[in-house]
Write a structure and sequence with these properties.
The protein is an alpha+beta fold. The chain folds into 4 domains: about 10-50, no CATH class; about 70-105 and about 235-385, 3-hydroxy-3-methylglutaryl-coenzyme A Reductase, Chain A, domain 2, CATH 3.90.770; about 115-225, 2-Layer Sandwich (Alpha-Beta Plaits), CATH 3.30.70; about 395-440. It has helices at about 15-25, 30-35, 45-50, 90-100, 125-145, 145-155, 190-210, 215, 255-270, 270-290, 295-310, 350-355, 360-385, 390-405, 410-420, 425-440, and strands at about 65-70, 75-80, 105-120, 155-165, 175-180, 220-225, 235-240, 320-325, 325-335. Strands 3, 4, 5, 6, 7, 8 and 9 form a 7-stranded antiparallel beta sheet that branches. A two-stranded antiparallel sheet has the order 1-2. The longest helix is centred in the last third of the chain and has 24 residues, at about 360-385. Bound molecules: (R)-mevalonate (MEV). (R)-mevalonate binds near residues 280, 281, 384 and 389.
Length: about 450
């Protein structure tokens, strides 16, 4: 059993590593050399990464891949994706190519409002609180001017502040429910700074409100924080084509494919067990681009899944229909993203990813990310209703299995050739590599 350590964060990086490797590893030198292998030799770059978080001991790599040929609103994109799952980039590229020949993706940002809340306790009559709120509402705007000045100049800022009575849920519980437009910033810092100022104003002004009793003056702020539920920061992406244009490799008619596809999506709409996996496939595309562009994938995940459950039952984020011989497939998804602030101006690969995407505005990035999700979903459902998912998945996973066996370049070449004709399973690869090694 290791002992707790005091003052760990104050130790130097090398002392932290020494403590870690000596406390937890049977071979401290091996552990240390793995950690060091992932350091960047460019000291400035390494320091930048060290300072992103506390207690950095090394860098954690993910591959950054690209999926070309995405036609979005008649503009071509190559989409950067940071992800570990072998088949995701290949599937995105395949879907992009497929829709490139069928008019591409059409997208639209429906709304871009974000929400923050000050949660507080007040014990008194609601009508008095309402009078108080109406009186001090302009003060909220005034007291946050230093924070909102630049954002307002650019056309964003605080849209509205509402007082909400939540006493049906919890006695004495009220909210300031605030809507924001944060333009190209994800806006978390902006929103939270405004909210914390509102909380101060609320408490201070209550002390001077003549209609409040001594008890009522004592408003207790519980917390002030943005919401990652962003149902009004919404984007739509869609593809459509004639049903007969869906025929793939002559293995299935366009009509049969379209019908089976719509059935599969309908199942995800009504069956939560399927919906979660269906949406996970969407998030494969979404998270990969969100991560590559330095955005907060946990915020996006939380908001997206809450939205998927907005009608009281967890359901599919995408929808499909056949109407008048046309197949349409679309997604409507909440995405709070930024292309300025946060990591976007700091992480060299994030800057590169944004330049690759033609330096998008936040709204354009919402559109690109929604497309990545829809494309990924199209690829997954297409495989599921035709060949099954394992064929493509295992083909891409082959390299991982070969790497587990430390296969040489020649072995990889020979076995990739062999598995063009044979089904990839872990045991089939084990057998094939053993055979090859015995032979040579
Ligand atoms: C695997 O990462 C994602 C899929 O399971 C998605 C789906 O089932 O639609 C293939």
């Amino acid at each position: 059993m290791s002992k707790p350590i005091a003052g760990f964060s104050k130790l130097s990086k090398s002392k932290k590593i020494d403590w870690i490797v000596n406390t937890y590893f049977s071979n401290a030198n091996d552990a240390k050399s793995i950690l060091k292998q992932y350091w960047n030799s460019n000291e400035k770059l390494q320091q930048l990464h060290d300072e992103f978080i506390e207690n950095t001991i090394t860098n954690y790599y993910l591959p950054l891949g690209v999926a070309p040929n995405f036609l979005i609103n008649n503009k071509l994109y190559t989409i950067p994706m940071a992800i570990e799952e072998s088949s995701v980039v290949a599937a995105a590229s395949k879907a992009a190519k497929f829709w490139l020949d069928r008019g591409g993706f059409k997208t639209k940002v429906i709304s871009s409002t974000k929400i923050g809340q000050v949660h507080f306790m007040y014990s008194g009559a609601f009508d008095k609180l309402q009078q108080f709120f109406t009186k001090i509402k302009p003060q909220f705007f005034e007291d946050t001017q230093a924070i909102t000045k630049n954002m307002t100049k650019r056309g964003g800022g605080i849209l509205d502040i509402e007082l909400r009575d939540k006493t049906n849920d919890i006695p004495n519980y009220y909210q300031l429910h605030v809507s924001f437009e944060t333009l190209n910033a994800m806006g978390a810092n902006f929103i939270n700074s405004c909210l914390e100022q509102f909380a101060k104003t609320l408490k201070e002004q209550a002390l001077n409100f003549e209609l409040f009793s001594e008890e009522e003056k004592n408003i207790e702020v519980v917390m002030s924080i943005l919401s990652n539920y962003v149902p009004d920061c919404l984007v739509r992406a869609e593809v459509s084509c004639k049903v007969e244009e869906l025929a793939q490799n002559h293995s299935i008619s366009g009509e049969a494919f379209a019908q089976k596809f719509v059935q599969a999506v309908n199942i995800a709409e009504v069956e939560p067990y399927r919906a979660v996996t269906h949406n996970k496939g969407i998030m494969n595309g979404i998270d990969a681009v969100v991560l590559a562009t330095g955005n907060d994938f946990r915020a996006v995940e939380a908001g997206v899944h809450a939205y998927a459950a907005k009608n009281g039952r967890y359901s599919s984020l995408s929808h499909a229909k056949i109407e008048n011989g046309m197949f349409s497939f679309w997604i409507e998804i909440p995405l709070a993203l930024g292309t300025v602030g946060g990591l976007t101006g700091l992480h060299p690969l994030v800057k590169l990813a944004l330049e690759l995407l033609h330096k998008p505005s936040a709204k354009e990035l919402m559109e690109i990310v929604a497309v990545a999700g829809l494309a990924q979903n199209f690829a997954a459902v297409s495989s599921l209703i035709t060949t099954g998912i394992q064929q493509g998945h295992m083909k891409m996973h082959l390299m991982n299995i070969l790497n587990q066996f430390e296969a040489t370049d020649n072995e990889k070449k020979a076995l990739s050739e062999h598995f063009k004709e044979n089904t990839v399973t872990h045991s089939a690869v084990t057998e094939a590599i053993n055979k090859l090694r015995i032979k040579s």
